[in-house]
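Anyone opening a protein record will find just a pair of labelled lines. A complete record is shown below as an example:
=====
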Amino acid sequence: MSGRPRRTALRATEASERQVTGPEAAAYLSVPISETEREQAVALIRWFRRRYPTGADRLAYVRRAYRRWAMARARQ
């Protein structure tokens, strides 16, 4: 990775790993989610529960996802 994609990845990493202040969190949490956001979240939950119907299926998915994340992180 070089140039712009590398800078974009670095900015994304920095943003995702930064510590949120108490006032920032309170401000974010004080705003109710929109109906559209709620519908999207419910749709994702329904999809996930259909795709991984049992606790064992969900745990297996999480383990695979964690392995992928850890391997990608090790390559950085």
Summary: The radius of gyration is 17 Å.
